[in-house]
């Protein structure tokens, strides 16, 4: 069976101030053509279809168009909700859509109930694990303490139990939206840390033939059977080095995996350039970036006059301007944002305690901070569901 694995469409999202709906529509057209030209038997979409719980009307219309075009091809599609989606909204009409071959899996309780598709070698069971917010699903899965690994392990126990009851030789595909250990994040994914931990080990998914992951925006191979497709478009300058693509997966009669990357259309390349303003305006090596979307980091010791206006004369698509004067790390002028870069909420809170009283928190106090941060995240998740 030939699968096309994609995820993280983020319909309705902008790139800085540039609307991406046209580029997203071009990607949908590319996906449909790939399905038609490469003889795809099933499409899997591993979450974050939309960029927010209540998407703009134009994004909903594009999603509707995508569903109609896929259904017209007669090729089944299996789709899960991600942490950016409203599972309830995305799942509306799932029963009716399933009759058209569009299988939406947004309910945690249905993790162990597969979509069964068949080829000449028998059945392939597709298990959809939507994004599982630990605080909201721990009771459903009977876990004592809310955590990503615990709820995903419980969901996979249901998958393996169902698979064990099926005829020998039934192949299996799991769709999941999670941060799996070994994956490389970018700046455009929403933080899903709970209890100080965001990642789960890949071993949670043992026992199935292929795991189609979503959440991280870079295309990645964690093992031959566990892969991220990544987002089809770049949504932050941290993705400047990404090659945006989908996975074309062939499952043979025994469940062995063969994978091929299918490149996605690039609306405009990204470039991150760094130097003083005069260097950026004069350097001939930067000529290839003159038509790219640009993030410029200025290292001038003093902020120059009208930097954006001057930069856009050479780089008309400059979208981001960062000031980062070359200074020693202990210089008091080093920006607060720079000092916090790459630090988790937990680390920032612990540093604040140390700064205020001269000593960092002990283990009991760390646990209190961790529980407080998790409570805020859980409250945000509940508000998202209620919208």
UniProtKB/TrEMBL annotation:
SUPFAM superfamilies: Metallo-dependent phosphatases
Stretches assigned to the Nuclease SbcCD subunit D C-terminal domain: 267-355
DNA-binding recorded as keyword: no
Keywords from the named record: DNA recombination, DNA replication, Endonuclease, Exonuclease, Hydrolase, Nuclease
Boundaries of every Calcineurin-like phosphoesterase domain copy: 1-218
GO molecular function: exonuclease activity
Keyword Hydrolase: yes
InterPro entries, per the entry: Calcineurin-like_PHP, DNA_Repair-Maintenance_Comp, Metallo-depent_PP-like, Mre11_N, SbcD, SbcD_C
Record's function text: SbcCD cleaves DNA hairpin structures. These structures can inhibit DNA replication and are intermediates in certain DNA recombination reactions. The complex acts as a 3'->5' double strand exonuclease that can open hairpins. It also has a 5' single-strand endonuclease activity.
Record's subunit section: Heterodimer of SbcC and SbcD.
Family under the similarity heading: Belongs to the SbcD family.
Full protein name: Nuclease SbcCD subunit D
